[in-house]
């Protein structure tokens, strides 16, 4: 592998067999996955002041700043990444490198979620921003293909919870649904900004038969998940780990509340991001992270990095942590991967093909 094109992802050794496992990344923010050296170069172009211009020191700064245990403070780290993603060339570069970093992580399908409304200060229109990211994603896929690696990507267009542009952003997503945009989300501070504030946008997307995932159950609890699922038509839940507040589990056996049972019985996928949850206070340790108990109860959990830069992580690292510290084995990792691709925002026949042609044989070739 060309390590300049495909650098070893954060948190794993280059010879770790987990790197070779086929993976899916459903919850992976574009503006949370920049390479530090890229941030330094792009910041110089736009005269944006960084905490440091040394790439390795900057990498350390992002990780340390994100380890506050508070979601709002965690989100302030994005001030620097978003600042350098305001032009079409910058968006193209970030998206291209995002794809190559996915390939290095063994990811064969990834959804890049990002909020175009945050990338307009240099004069781009919403549509121009989406088109620039799509060009970058396609460039990355083409480079990977030239190196004998295959990856599929899609954009999840995100509206900000604290803003009032969600209907406009929903229309943007629908305009690009046949040119790379596969889903819609809302993100940002969860407390005080319920998903129901954006019901008009979600109703329009529902009527247009367009896929929706919603950040819920991270900084807020069961009510946030309830509103996302039952009012706003979410097909997947971003994070969702606080669903455990609607159950009483003893020795692996659970008495489930109405919502917890609904989410389980309908296998509504949970896009779980273990390391990120520790940083934002949604969990205390990997050992007692809710993902393992939810897996045992049969929830459709998936394993994701959330923000690769801020959490100094990758899908491979998240999997390695679960194996080393939470008792997961290869069968568990395969099960979570099948959950992920089964619920990707792709046509059914494509999802089934990827399970049969990529996931099952890929896991069969590796022994941890």
Structural account:
The protein has a single domain (23-355), classed as TIM Barrel. α6 (126-146) links the parallel β2 and β3. The chain is globular, with a radius of gyration of 19 Å. With 368 residues, the chain is an alpha/beta fold. Strands 1-2-3-4 form a four-stranded parallel sheet. A four-stranded parallel sheet has the order 5-6-9-10. The chain has a two-stranded antiparallel sheet with strand order 7-8. Helices cover 45% and strands 14% of the residues.
CATH architecture: Alpha-Beta Barrel
State the major sheet. 4 strands, parallel
Can you list the strand order of the major beta sheet? 1-2-3-4
Helicity range of the residues?
40-55%
CATH homologous superfamily grouping: Metal-dependent hydrolases
Beta-strand percentage? 5-15%
CATH class: Alpha Beta
Query: Distance between the terminal alpha carbons, to the nearest Å?
Result: 21 Å
The number of E-state strands comes to 10
């Amino acid at each position: 592998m060309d390590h300049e094109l495909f650098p070893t992802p954060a948190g794993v050794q280059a010879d770790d067999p987990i790197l070779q496992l086929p993976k899916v990344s459903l919850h992976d923010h574009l503006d949370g996955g920049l390479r530090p050296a890229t941030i330094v170069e792009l910041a110089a172009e736009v005269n944006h002041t960084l905490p440091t211009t040394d790439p390795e020191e900057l990498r350390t700064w992002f990780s340390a700043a994100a380890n506050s245990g508070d979601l709002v403070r965690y989100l302030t780290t994005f001030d620097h990444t978003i600042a350098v993603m305001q032009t079409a060339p910058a968006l193209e570069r970030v998206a291209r490198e995002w794809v190559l970093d996915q390939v290095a992580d063994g990811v064969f399908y990834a959804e890049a979620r990002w909020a175009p409304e945050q990338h307009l200060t240099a004069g781009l229109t919403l549509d121009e921003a989406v088109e620039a990211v799509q060009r970058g994603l396609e460039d990355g896929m083409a480079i990977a293909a030239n190196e004998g690696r295959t990856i599929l990507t899609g954009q999840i267009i995100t509206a900000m919870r604290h803003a009032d542009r969600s209907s406009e952003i929903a229309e943007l997503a629908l305009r690009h649904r046949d040119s790379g945009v596969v889903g819609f989300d809302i993100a940002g501070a969860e407390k005080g900004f319920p998903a129901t504030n954006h019901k008009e946008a979600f109703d329009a997307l529902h009527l247009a038969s367009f896929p929706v995932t919603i950040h819920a159950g991270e900084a807020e609890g069961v009510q946030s998940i309830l509103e996302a699922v039952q009012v706003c038509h979410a097909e997947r839940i971003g994070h969702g780990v606080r669903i455990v507040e609607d159950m009483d589990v003893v020795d692996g056996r659970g008495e489930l509340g109405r919502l917890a049972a609904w989410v389980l019985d309908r296998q509504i996928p949970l896009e779980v991001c273990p390391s990120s949850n520790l940083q934002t206070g949604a969990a205390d340790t990997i050992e007692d992270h809710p993902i393992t108990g939810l897996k045992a109860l049969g929830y459709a959990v998936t394993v994701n990095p959330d923000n690769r830069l801020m959490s100094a992580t990758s899908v491979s690292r998240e999997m390695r942590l679960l194996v080393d510290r939470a008792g997961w084995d290869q069968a568990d990792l395969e099960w979570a991967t099948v959950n992920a691709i089964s619920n990707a925002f792709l046509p059914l026949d494509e999802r089934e093909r990827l399970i049969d042609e990529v996931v099952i044989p890929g896991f069969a070739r590796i022994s941890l």
